[in-house]
Design a protein that fits this description.
CATH topology: Immunoglobulin-like
Protein name: Fibronectin type-III domain-containing protein
Largest sheet: 6 strands, mixed
Helix content: under 10%
Number of strands: 10
CATH architecture: Sandwich
CATH superfamily: Immunoglobulins
Radius of gyration: 13 Å
Order of helices and strands: EEEEEEEEEE
Number of domains: 1
Strand content: over 45%
Structural class: mainly beta
CATH class: Mainly Beta
Distance between the termini: 43 Å
Length: 94
């Protein structure tokens, strides 16, 4: 069963030309992965989250300047998988 993961807070930091940091407020340490890509139908690049004191952080690297990127976050729990909606950001041009 796939359900939407309820997020308390999600922050997309100001992207650089080659990367972006995304943080999500999470009350407990969960195994979260972020999938990103250049369109809503091709989000295949996996970035694992790092949990520390109620926040999971994802550092997305090796991006191309001046492009729009889409991402979602997913977790696999004992009862099944949960995921967020789709978010987006754009890297600045060089």
């Amino acid at each position: 069963l796939l359900t939407w993961l309820k997020l308390v807070d999600i922050t997309i930091a100001e992207p650089t030309t080659t990367g972006c940091v995304v943080t999500i407020a999470t009350a407990t340490d969960q195994t979260l992965s972020l999938y990103s890509g250049g369109s809503k139908t091709s989000m295949f690049k996996k970035t694992d989250g790092v949990w520390e004191t109620d926040t999971t952080t994802f550092t997305i690297a090796d991006l191309t300047p001046g492009l729009e990127y889409f991402f979602y976050v997913i977790t696999t729990l004992g009862t099944g998988a949960e995921r967020t909606g789709i978010y987006k950001f754009k890297t600045p041009a060089e």
